[in-house]
């Protein structure tokens, strides 16, 4: 079996995907028209042409503007259902989806509109294709602690439908310590925690995420490699890093995929996984991230298998489900 066929054949979990980042230009255009929302593009080609980024912030500006077309429960359903259809195509059998309520509540969209549409799509994908999903609510770190506390309060009635909380948006200047108290309250309420750290921010932010936010995973974390002691700690803890190769390339965290440190970290024993982050903006879903990375870094079939097993090991599935998927991977030859 070729490496690309192996990638397609292996079941995977996706652990780092922002639902707002799965809004394809075609759907953005369609929803903008039906909702009568003005967007600064005349057609789908113009939307695609705007997707040239030089860092995280230049992406976020365009990404938040695109999300403004989402108003109704049906919009969030359509968005999530379209993503889950891509999961089916890529053999992603389990996904843990980030959503950013503040991006929507700030525009007057109710929290329950957002989560209601998402949950309905997740339920449909479970019934129709057997894909399991969990939701992780992210706080926008460029906003205040107070706004994060308010968002946490809004989430409490939906606690049973939200497995954990995360932290995303503009990293530099907004360290994890800014949200120490919010995360403490979230953990008290029973939420698991994750955080974006070490994407553009320094290794110190990864340390803060571990020490102050008590995260179960680090999202991105690629700059951890600059701190040898931190690397040892990540290996000792078997702390998962949810790495997003095409995102790192498009946001210029790395100059070229061939320079990506994922393989080095894997060899060093870090529990790294491969994810798409914002696939509609960065040029590909999970399998495309795998194939591009495999070609650029000359990954072996064994490494591909390990990465797929890692995706389950690092997930919030039960030990039984993790075992079941990992033995399924072993049976595919
Ligand atoms: N980093 C921070 N915030 C984000 C990202 C990211 O890669 N994608 C969507 N929001
Ligand atoms: Zn992300």
TrEMBL record:
Keyword annotations of the record: Hydrolase, Metal-binding, Nucleotide metabolism, Zinc
GO process annotations (BP): adenine catabolic process; hypoxanthine salvage; nucleotide metabolic process
Cofactor: Zn(2+)
Active site, per annotation: 199 (proton donor)
EC top class named in words: hydrolase
SUPFAM superfamilies: Metallo-dependent hydrolases
Positions of Zn(2+) binding: 16, 18, 196, 277
Binding site for substrate: 278
Cellular component aspect of the GO annotation: cytosol
Swiss-Prot/TrEMBL catalytic activity: adenine + H2O + H(+) = hypoxanthine + NH4(+)
Membrane spanning stretches: none
Cofactor note: Binds 1 zinc ion per subunit.
Molecular function GO labels: adenine deaminase activity; zinc ion binding
CDD domains (UniProt xref): ADA
One of the Pfam families matching this protein, by short name: A_deaminase
Site positions for Important for catalytic activity: 220
Boundaries of every Adenosine deaminase domain copy: 11-331
Catalytic activity, EC: 3.5.4.2
Family: Belongs to the metallo-dependent hydrolases superfamily. Adenosine and AMP deaminases family. Adenine deaminase type 2 subfamily.
Its biological purpose: Catalyzes the hydrolytic deamination of adenine to hypoxanthine. Plays an important role in the purine salvage pathway and in nitrogen catabolism.
NCBIfam families on file: aden_deam, PRK09358.1-6
Protein name as catalogued: Adenine deaminase
């Amino acid at each position: 079996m070729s490496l690309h066929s192996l990638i397609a054949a292996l079941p995977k979990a996706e652990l780092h995907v922002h639902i707002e980042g799965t809004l394809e230009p075609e759907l953005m255009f369609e929803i903008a028209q039906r909702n009568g929302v003005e967007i600064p593009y005349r057609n789908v080609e113009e939307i695609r042409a705007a997707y040239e980024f030089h860092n995280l912030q230049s992406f976020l500006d365009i990404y938040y503007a695109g999300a403004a077309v989402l108003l109704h429960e049906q919009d969030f359903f359509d968005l999530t259902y379209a993503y889950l259809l891509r999961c089916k195509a890529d053999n992603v059998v389990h996904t843990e989806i980030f959503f950013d309520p503040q991006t929507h509540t700030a525009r007057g969209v109710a929290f329950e509109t957002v989560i209601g549409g998402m949950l309905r799509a997740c339920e449909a994908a479970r019934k129709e294709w057997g894909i399991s999903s969990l939701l992780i609510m992210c706080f926008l770190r460029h906003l205040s602690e107070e706004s994060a506390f308010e968002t946490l309060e809004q989430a409490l009635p939906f606690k049973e439908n939200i497995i954990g909380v995360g932290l995303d948006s503009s990293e530099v200047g907004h360290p994890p310590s800014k949200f120490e108290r919010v995360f403490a309250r979230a953990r008290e309420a029973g939420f698991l925690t994750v955080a974006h750290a070490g994407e553009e921010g320094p290794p110190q932010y990864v340390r803060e995420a571990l020490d102050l936010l008590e995260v179960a995973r680090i999202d991105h974390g690629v700059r951890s490699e600059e701190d040898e002691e931190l690397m040892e700690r990540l290996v000792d803890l078997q702390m998962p890093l949810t790495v997003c190769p095409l995102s790192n390339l498009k946001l210029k965290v790395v100059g070229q995929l061939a320079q990506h440190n994922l393989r080095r970290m894997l060899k060093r024993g870090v529990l790294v996984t491969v994810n798409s982050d914002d696939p509609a903006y960065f040029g590909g879903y999970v399998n495309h991230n795998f194939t591009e990375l495999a070609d650029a870094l000359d990954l072996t079939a064994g490494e591909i298998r390990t990465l797929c097993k890692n995706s389950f090991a690092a997930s919030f599935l039960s030990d039984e489900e993790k075992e079941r998927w990992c033995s399924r991977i072993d049976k595919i030859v």
